[in-house]
Amino acid sequence: MEIFVQQLINGLTLGSIYGLIAIGYTMVFGIIGMVNFAHGDVFMVSAFIALICFLLVTTVLGITSIFLALAIVLVVAMFFTSLLNWAIERVAYRPLRGSFRLAPMISAIGMSIFLANFVQVTQGPRNKPVPPMITDVIVLMDSGSYQVTLAWKQVIIMVVTAALLGGFWYLVQKTSLGRAQRACEQDRKMAALLGINVDHTISLTFVIGAALAAVAGTLYLMYYGVANFADGFVPGVKAFTAAVLGGIGSLPGAVLGGLLIGLIETFWSAYFSIEYKDVAAFSILAITLIFMPQGLLGRPEVEKV
Amino acid sequence: MTTHRLAAAVLGIGLLASPGFARAEEITIGFTAALSGDFAAFGLNMRKGLDLAVAALNKKGGNTYTIDAVDDRGEAREGVLIAQRFCSDKKVDVVMGYSFSSIALAAVPVFNECKLPVLASAVTSPALTNVSPYFRRNVLTDAVQGTMMGDYAAKTLGLKSIYVLNQQDDYGIGVAKAFSAAAEKDGAKIIGTESYLLGSKDFRTLLTKVRAAKPDAIFIGGFYTEAAKIAEQARALGIKAQLLSTDGALNVELMKLGRSAVEGMIVYGMFDPAVATPATESFLSAYKAAYKEDPSAWAALGYDAGMALGAAVDLAAKDGPVTRESLNAAFGKLKDVPGVTGPTTFDPSGDRAGALYFLEVKDGKFGLAPKQP
């Protein structure tokens, strides 16, 4: 029982990070119908931005309060990652809009390779560490022989994910920006006719996706303490799986999918074999696509004529 | 055609020189290893050690040595091409280096074809034992090193229950298997074995399982990147077991990544600057003067390989001009060539016998572990 609870905590933390990245996939797919394969690498770049910023904040500025430092890092990482993703959309995707459907996707794959290699060349191929932060834990259960612990880091990750999901759900459902976004999603041409600036809305979608990826990147760095140029790939593909599982295009679906993938991966490693955890996670992708292509919370695709 | 004529010319000159007549040989070493990318450190360190040895040999006078270095970038495909290049270059008398067993394995058939002797320094796969009469290495195999670590853990440290984690590849599996067999033979209990992928960062799930098993020690058969992560996350989960690892973790990066979590971890290696004996002192000071850093085990092995080559060339030169064939025969006849990792003698299988040092992380540095076998 104690071990089950402990693994549940591990799985929820991992799933929260996947969920945050998955939102970026899902929003972009929803609005322009494109799988942004570079999103995982944008996440990786954000972890590096967070790392550089964290080292600057703690050494050059000499800020010792870890929470203040983290808050600064989070804002800076969100800003620069958003800027990067905005630029990527302008340079690599917008000129291809209206081209054949595969063109921006291939461009995204190219962008993904570019980002990973750029970081490898400029930051080096090795793991870059940061000092461990927030190492305190809370003891939840103590059966004498086994303690169930919840690290503050894990609490932060789950709380931040829940807060952001709430915030973004509000943004999409209740604000004019969200309305514009949903309108573009349903019919881009009609939205344009009705006076919505479609290019602007799409840009903002990329910016929001990147900001969430930056939160995930910062939390990832805080949780694992290292960043590596290759880190974009596997978390990126898993988050994509999460988006598909939750129903691509659906915000709550992305988070639900992320949590499920995190839990499946963790419990699979805990009770079966850890070697096959990625096989288990990706089998879910195949099974979802075969039996439930619209995902858990997605709507069946309406044929646009 | 040109190479054939050249070879004939070289052979002609060789025949002109009468045996016993003192003449300087020009030895070209074909050096290949991963010199760029993720695991460039092993190759670059070997090269530094070898450079030092070559400088010492050239200073001694007589035969002269030059190095022709090629980066294999850690790719087996490159390894075969490089082997073919060395083979067809008649100037190359011996090939040294190699960072990865898989690349050496791929290249061996090519060297068999052209009878070019190989003396490798960092490849530890048991699959390379007895692989070819032209292949030798001066590093101990994973199987031998794993067995020694297993004996050390069970007998010297007296650990009773050990949880084994290993990297999911030939290296990790090989070393973990040898470790487990030796430790169990000596009375320790292996209470669990799990493997992980190179590049993994999340070990909490795995370590939650390990914590429930309450082992005395955790053996990590893998590289420093994952060993540091495992140590950090294990300590964060409150696991206080003794951590053991391999020569793959014997790297200063371990402390940079793991910081206080890796304190007390015990690893092994064939050399360490902490173990200064009279034999190693001149090497240590020369290395520090040349490169402004401490030599690693790989640098020491590269240096010893260079010294073994020097001894083999001297031996071969006694009976006439040094050829690939005579050099290969001379390697087989070497006996106890002194070196910083101990004396070198090659078995007919191509391996060598040697000792391991057990090193403990203390105050962010590797030092000799208090208990030695």
TrEMBL record, chain A:
<feature type="transmembrane region" description="Helical">
    <location>
        <begin position="193"/>
        <end position="223"/>
    </location>
</feature>
<keyword id="KW-0997">Cell inner membrane</keyword>
<feature type="transmembrane region" description="Helical">
    <location>
        <begin position="151"/>
        <end position="172"/>
    </location>
</feature>
<keyword id="KW-0813">Transport</keyword>
<feature type="transmembrane region" description="Helical">
    <location>
        <begin position="279"/>
        <end position="297"/>
    </location>
</feature>
<feature type="transmembrane region" description="Helical">
    <location>
        <begin position="42"/>
        <end position="61"/>
    </location>
</feature>
<protein>
    <submittedName>
        <fullName>Branched-chain amino acid ABC transporter permease LivH</fullName>
    </submittedName>
</protein>
<comment type="similarity">
    <text>Belongs to the binding-protein-dependent transport system permease family. LivHM subfamily.</text>
</comment>
<feature type="transmembrane region" description="Helical">
    <location>
        <begin position="100"/>
        <end position="119"/>
    </location>
</feature>
<dbReference type="InterPro" id="IPR001851">
    <property type="entry name" value="ABC_transp_permease"/>
</dbReference>
<keyword id="KW-0812">Transmembrane</keyword>
<keyword id="KW-0029">Amino-acid transport</keyword>
<keyword id="KW-1133">Transmembrane helix</keyword>
<dbReference type="GO" id="GO:0005886">
    <property type="term" value="C:plasma membrane"/>
</dbReference>
<feature type="transmembrane region" description="Helical">
    <location>
        <begin position="67"/>
        <end position="88"/>
    </location>
</feature>
<dbReference type="GO" id="GO:0015808">
    <property type="term" value="P:L-alanine transport"/>
</dbReference>
<dbReference type="InterPro" id="IPR052157">
    <property type="entry name" value="BCAA_transport_permease"/>
</dbReference>
<dbReference type="GO" id="GO:0015190">
    <property type="term" value="F:L-leucine transmembrane transporter activity"/>
</dbReference>
<dbReference type="GO" id="GO:0005304">
    <property type="term" value="F:L-valine transmembrane transporter activity"/>
</dbReference>
<dbReference type="Pfam" id="PF02653">
    <property type="entry name" value="BPD_transp_2"/>
</dbReference>
<feature type="transmembrane region" description="Helical">
    <location>
        <begin position="12"/>
        <end position="35"/>
    </location>
</feature>
<feature type="transmembrane region" description="Helical">
    <location>
        <begin position="243"/>
        <end position="267"/>
    </location>
</feature>
TrEMBL record, chain B:
<dbReference type="Pfam" id="PF13458">
    <property type="entry name" value="Peripla_BP_6"/>
</dbReference>
<dbReference type="InterPro" id="IPR000709">
    <property type="entry name" value="Leu_Ile_Val-bd"/>
</dbReference>
<keyword id="KW-0732">Signal</keyword>
<dbReference type="InterPro" id="IPR028082">
    <property type="entry name" value="Peripla_BP_I"/>
</dbReference>
<comment type="similarity">
    <text>Belongs to the leucine-binding protein family.</text>
</comment>
<feature type="signal peptide">
    <location>
        <begin position="1"/>
        <end position="24"/>
    </location>
</feature>
<dbReference type="InterPro" id="IPR028081">
    <property type="entry name" value="Leu-bd"/>
</dbReference>
<keyword id="KW-0029">Amino-acid transport</keyword>
<keyword id="KW-0813">Transport</keyword>
<feature type="domain" description="Leucine-binding protein">
    <location>
        <begin position="26"/>
        <end position="364"/>
    </location>
</feature>
<protein>
    <submittedName>
        <fullName>Branched-chain amino acid transport system substrate-binding protein</fullName>
    </submittedName>
</protein>
